[in-house]
Structure prediction request, 99 residues.
Amino acid sequence: MSPEIINLIVQLVSGAIGGNAAGKINKGFDLGALLNSVAGAAGGVGGGYLLSTLLPNLITTAEGAGFDVGAILGQAVGGGVGGLVLTAIIGFIKNRAAA
Prediction:
């Protein structure tokens, strides 16, 4: 599997987890499980891309036949934080519009 696909999968999954964490941490940001996951996944890809741009050594997760665990963890952290932040922003805007 190509490194770009591995990066994308890690970012999507960790972003969805981060999005759901945002909804659990603050009920004001909760969009429901499905929308938390979707917003989180989108934020995860954005956060992972931003982190990869700032730290170029995280771009390649596969080295030869093995995986670079540090790079995968970096993608997971970037994706999780990105997912949490985007979900929180969307939840905040949604709640402000409803008020």
About this structure: The helical segments are 3-25, 33-54, 69-98. The first helix runs from residue 3 to 25. The mean pLDDT is 85.
